[in-house]
Amino acid sequence: MNLFETVTEMGHEQVLFCHGKDPDIKAIIAIHDTSLGPAMGATRLLPYISEEAALKDALRLSRGMTYKAACANIPVGGGKAVIIADPANKTDDLLRAYGRFVNNLQGRFITGQDVNLTPEDVRTISQETNYVVGVEEKSGGPAPITARGVFLGIKAAVEFKNQTQRLDGVRVAVQGLGNVGKHLCQLLHEDGAQLLVADVSSEKTEEVKRLFGATVVEPEEIYSVNVDIFAPCALGGILNSETIPRIQAEIIAGCANNQLGQEQIHSHMLREKGILYCPDYVINAGGLINVYNEMIGYNEEKAFKQLNNIYNTLLEIFARGEQQEITTNFAAQQLAEERIMKARKLKNQPIAVSC
Ligand code: NAD
Questions:
Q1: Which structural domain range is residue 305 located in?
Q2: Within a domain: 217
Q3: pLDDT at 138
């Protein structure tokens, strides 16, 4: 990998390689863009197969955070950190050493919990720095607000397609009935939608069947059921060359991260099939809105009000996609970049790239 070329191409402002001997620590903090505000992004701890793989992950995910925040109209930038370590070797010393690196950035980067870190680990990191979120879940966790954001996104998509927000009688297939999926089922049920659901856990499908009158199908069947909307709320990479031809829904709107197997190829496949795809990082921004509000002092009413940004942004993305004959994924990226450029101009901030 040509480091500077890659970083310049992806538009990162700063990439920090944090290392130390006692304790032995290797971490990468990628700050993609701070035009809209301090870079925000959770920290994951993984035994990456190579340092290059770790760097790629940090670069890709931090850029994703920039776009997510810009589309959600939240005044934060995009960042991400990776600690290269085996979870078995996670110690308080390691976490505190990492916390000192975060603290050295003096608020340019604010982090939280991702893969292989627990709320308890975040608390340990917070012994060295205040620039962490999620130490105490003042909001009761992000899942309910994420689900409500997805629900509003579904309403925006239905309005765009059918010129009505009404969901009564609309058939929705929900894949994954975890923290977000179950909440989403409740909101859809209360609004009169008919649910078809799948999960690998029969306990979860039985509960949603009992509570919301859902029809349960096998996990593999969920792609091909005859529905209006498909809501992926389980795994990434599920929209691919094998599944897309089977999908009958005309709208895809769910919370799962990285739904598209290959962004370019599969977003085009969806468009060619006439399926309205709600870009995942736009529709699932409720979690980010939640942590942002925890950071500034949690106010439920304010946080829920900001969720309307998801609805409005999606309508704008759909209209752009249609007018310019581009995928909704590309339209979202365009919109995010425009918002960032506008903020940069306002600040008169040079687009400096430094490592
Ligand atoms: P979760 O782990 O609580 O739920 C996932 C559910 O999917 C589980 O019930 C699991 O049994 C089910 N599942 C796994 N494999 C499946 C398969 N093959 N078919 C059907 N179901 C399957 O996770 P969650 O917090 O509800 O998040 C769901 C997705 O949304 C994840 O991709 C997550 O990264 C993303 N997301 C979550 C939030 C949040 O606030 N929790 C925010 C943004 C994005």
A1: 142-328
A2: yes
A3: 67
Q: What are the tens digits of pLDDT across the range 76-92? A: 999 999 999 999 999 99
Q: Is 161 a catalytic residue?
A: no
- Ligand 1 contacts CB of residue 176 (under 6 A): yes
Task: Spell out, as residue ranges, where the chain has pLDDT lower than 70.
Answer: 136-140, 348-355
Residues 163 and 311 in one domain: yes
pLDDT score recorded for residue 277: 98
257 C-alpha to ligand 1 centroid (Å): 9
In a domain, 66, yes or no: no
Q: Are residues 97 and 190 in the same domain?
A: no
- Residue 146 has a pLDDT of 94
Please check whether residue 349 lies inside any domain of the structure: no
The pLDDT, as a whole number, for residue 278 is 98
Mutate which of 202, 255, 281, 289 for ligand 1? The one with the most ligand atoms within 8 Å of its CB, which is: 255
Structure-token pair, residue 135: 């130490």
Does the residue 157 lie in any domain?
yes
CATH number for position 85? 3.40.50.10860
| Cα distance between residue 334 and residue 81, in whole Å | 25
Which residues have CB under 8 Å from 327's CB, separation 6+? 267, 268, 270, 271, 277, 321
Judgement on whether residues 154 and 86 belong to the same structural domain of the protein: no
Residue with tokens 């899942």: 143
pLDDT the model gives residue 350: 57
Q: Measure Cα distances from 346 to 36, 309, 341, 343, 350 in Å.
A: 10, 21, 9, 5, 11
In the chain, what are the helix, strand and coil shares in percent, each to the nearest 5? 50, 15, 35
